[in-house]
Amino acid sequence: MTYAFMKVYIHHKVRLDFYAFFNKGLLNLGFFKLINFIQHNIKDFTLTIRLIIHAFLLSIILVTIFIFDTVSRLEIAAAVFYIIVILIGARYFVARGIILLSVVCTVLTISSFLLTKDGAYKEGLINTIIALMALYLTSYIVIRAQMSEKRAMNATEQMTRMARIQSLGELTASIAHEINQPLAATTASADACRNWLVRDKPDIGRAVQALERISKEAHRASEVIERVRRLSKNEITKKEIVDFNEIVAETIALSKALIEHNDIELHWNRCESKLLIDADRVQIMQVIGNLFLNAIEALNIRHAADRFITVKTFILDNRANLRMTDTGIGISDDDLKHIFDAFWTKREGGTGLGLTLCRAIVEAHKGVITARTNPHGGAIFEISLPLAIKPEVILHGQ
């Protein structure tokens, strides 16, 4: 009876959980978050299955080497093949896992030596010692390589963050302007609200409208601060399904005041479809922001009437693309060869890391960034990133 009750309970619980997930997904998460939720869960499930399969294959290799080492003569150093296990394990385990794996291989090597009866004992002992030394040396090299790779990744992340902070420094005037506008509007609305309320006959309707404007401007200022916070905080890479157009819009909003301050006319031909990509929003904002800063600097020597930046987002070959064209000084053929090289710069006070990090970020997202000379003067930069969802699915979801 208890079993039957539990069976019914579990059956209904699963159904309720499914309906709760379905309703939550449709009503609360929204289209983007629902896609994110499904994709990340599928990724986790796929990753788990892959790990199980790889662990099973690794076990088969271990058993195969152990059997071969045990049935072969002592003069044959079959235990050396355990190095293969360590090298394969290096793809899936960190230092502790490699150490544990080497301990398992050591136990199997010694066990095979003790169980093997055929062959000369002395040669077998020497072969076992050589195999163990090769095993430990391989494990040491693998662990050192992993540590070096981790240090290199940390250094790259720090460089990326410093470049982000530098970009924020250059956008300080733009950010201050973006925050001052809603603050000024809030002050004006607050004064208006007070005036409507202190009258002999308070106009409650007008006062409420002023309060609504205050709330709206406060949210606007909060959005600017949130954009800055995203760019400045030090977080690990976090990919999610985002609309490429939204990232471009956020970056333009941060750069708008700086663009206007330099008397630059900005045109944005926005793709009508949603360009859903699997990306780290902050990193892609950093790339686009860096391109804006470069374009603004290149346009400073132009006459105000000739300063234009054109941004276009579009779909090509199932990829989300951004093309930024400016009418600045352009790029020479010699400079194009080195423009993405580390520490190469013609900018006074520049680090030569901006475009290098841009390329590293784009390539980490399985994308491509290119630069070429604009035939009509200036430069053209293009970013191409793989779409997370096919265009027809995106259009259906709009």
UniProtKB/TrEMBL annotation:
UniProt keyword annotation of Membrane present: yes
Domain Histidine kinase: residue ranges: 174-389
First-level EC class: transferase
Pfam families: HATPase_c, HisKA
Signal peptide positions on this chain: none
Reaction catalyzed: ATP + protein L-histidine = ADP + protein N-phospho-L-histidine
GO molecular function (one): phosphorelay sensor kinase activity
Residue ranges of the TM segments: 47-68, 74-90, 97-114, 126-143
EC numbers for this chain: 2.7.13.3
CDD domains for the chain: HisKA (cd00082)
Keywords: Membrane, Phosphoprotein, Transmembrane, Transmembrane helix
Top-level taxon in the UniProt lineage: Bacteria
PANTHER family: SENSOR HISTIDINE KINASE, TWO-COMPONENT SENSOR PPRA
Name listed for the protein in its UniProt record: histidine kinase
